[in-house]
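FAQ: What does the model actually see?

It sees only this:
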Amino acid sequence: MLSQYADQIPNLRRDLIKNVTAALEEDIGSGDITAQLIPAGQHTKARIITREDCTFCGKSWVEETFRQLDPEVTITWHIADGQQAAANSTLFELEGPARSLLTGERTALNFVQLLSGVASTAQQYAQLVAGLPIKILDTRKTLPGLRSAQKYAVACGGCHNHRIGLYDAFLIKENHIAAAGSIEAAVTKAREIAADKPLEVEVETLAELNQALASGADIVMLDEMDLEDVNRHLEGKTFTAQLELSGGVDIAHINAQKSLFKNISRISVGALTKHCRAVDLSMRVE
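And it is asked to produce this:
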């Protein structure tokens, strides 16, 4: 079962099933020839351990892998999505036909390694702003076909989701502004198209920041702008839009700039999903 972190991600269950189906098909192909070395009736047990500290994510992907592969396999869980796991601890145990356990091992572990890696990175970023009125958000810089899975992992790690795709929020960038003629024209047209959708404008200069705030945008994204300049520029001004820091943001950047975040309520970080590193896991068969 997916956890509460799935609530804001549309079609996650549908995507999960498609992801697992595709992963099994690409791995098994016409059949697992190595698994045929094992007698068909042989049953066994296995446990999956993590070799490093991590934030766990991927329970439903494991369950779906063995549901599709062999419903005889039973899973005993020792952790839930979003929980911390210590190095060398057991995450879950499998029991069932030996062939099925070995055939599904790589698909199941690939999902858990990737998603736990994303969740662990997100947890590191979430800790940076703990206690501050700031959300760390992901972006659309995700692995093709695995967006909803990665965004779920981001939420499990304690960060937040930016728009899911091109359909659930406006993000008006430089090329949109150029094509529309101005920030004001782009915002006006967007409100005509879908007044109920969140509307964000990306800016690169203080002049563009003024225009975006005057246009009535819900959110203004500051693309690699100097926060000292922004803070001086906004001193004494009243505005309703949320300000989002973006562009080349990493852990070192956040630590160095934290004292300048007085006008910032959102920070978008492509590295949450783009630069993910898989967690080191291992399956040990009895």
